[in-house]
Amino acid sequence: MSTIHSLPEGFSQNDQLPIRIVSPDFGHLSPEVADQYGLTHRLPYYFFIFVLEGSSQYGVDLDTIDVGKHEVLFCLPHQIQQLPIHIHAKDYYKLGFDEACLAQLPKPYPFLLNPLNQQKIRFSPAAAGRVQSIFEMLQTLLRSPDTEPELILAHLNSLLTELNTAYFAADKKPTDDRLAKFIGFKVFVENNLIDHPSIKAIAEELAVSTDSLCQIVKHYSGRSPKEFITNRLILEARRRLYYGERSSVKELAFELGFNDPDYFSRVFKKETGKTVAAFFQDLS
């Protein structure tokens, strides 16, 4: 059975893995190909940029994030990415790969669920040196399209392990049961988003009390479970509006599981400060 890759056709630099790396002097698409995708698009794959010198600025889900020296910005599938208009950092590595590539790695990397709601990772000079070495080796391996996938995957595993460790560095117990429960909460919400799952149903699924679930979600996200789910629903609405993936407010409301379009409109305005019509007009 063939594997379906979400990396755009012609992007991969390996004959067997859906992965691409770019640096100032390597891996850039031709201007003609790059123009086909534009500066703003909805990502179908994982994207990382590691800045070595200088700074850069990216838009992620309509928010602007500055990335400086020894920092990594990571973007996840389905997020809206806005690329810099001008040439960014003086020295950097960019990396993209999709779920088909991730599935071949030996373990999960919890940071890819972004449980702490921070898409930028900062490294100490020593850790930045290790990360740079891994990127350099990946680039060397991807210069030849027939490189054995095992070699690439081994270094990708090392890279994601470094990122995962740095992501949770500020959390005293990054592997404790509370974090595992929060990750479980996020996964459940993603898989059942338009069903508007009740807090009680999620707590039962995770085998915790509703009070414990509220405390865990508040600790990691700063929101109550209900607020978290509502925020995620409105984010999805904003994404679909941005790409014109709706023909009416009523249709969008029903697609996202709201039985009452008027209620959806009120929630949207409360979360964004704008009506759906005003938000859509600002995008025009």
Characterization of this structure:
The chain is an alpha+beta fold and about 280 residues long. The chain has 2 domains: about 20-165, Sandwich (Jelly Rolls), CATH 2.60.120; about 175-284, Homeodomain-like (Arc Repressor Mutant, subunit A), CATH 1.10.10. The protein has 11 helices and 9 strands. It has helices at about 30-35, 100, 125-140, 150-165, 175-190, 200-205, 210-220, 225-240, 250-255, 260-270, 275-284; strands spanning about 20, 40, 45-55, 55-60, 65, 70-75, 80, 90-95, 120. A 5-stranded antiparallel β-sheet has the order 1-8-3-6-9. The chain has a 4-stranded antiparallel β-sheet with strand order 2-7-4-5, with no helix packed on it. Strand 4 and strand 5 form a beta hairpin. Helix 3 (about 125-140) packs antiparallel against helix 4 (about 150-165), helix 8 (about 225-240) packs across helix 10 (about 260-270) and helix 9 (about 250-255) crosses helix 10. It is globular and about 55 Å long.
What fraction of residues sit in β-strands?
A: 15-25%
Whole-number radius of gyration?
20 Å
CATH architecture label of the largest domain? Sandwich
Can you tell me the residue ranges where pLDDT is under 50 for at least 5 consecutive residues?
Answer: none
CATH fold category name of the largest domain: Jelly Rolls
Which range best describes the helical content: under 10%, 10-25%, 25-40%, 40-55%, 55-70% or over 70%?
40-55%
Lateral arrangement of strands in the main beta sheet? 1-8-3-6-9
Number of DSSP helical runs:
11
Mean pLDDT: 88
Can you tell me the number of structural domains? 2
Note the overall shape.
globular
Number of strands: 9
Order of helices and strands: EHEEEEEEEHEHHHHHHHHH
Structural category: alpha+beta
Distance between termini?
A: 43 Å
Largest sheet: 5 strands, antiparallel
Question: In CATH, what is the class of the largest domain?
Answer: Mainly Beta
GO molecular function, one term: sequence-specific DNA binding
Keywords: DNA-binding, Transcription, Transcription regulation
InterPro entries: Homeodomain-like_sf, HTH_AraC
Domain HTH araC/xylS-type: 183-282
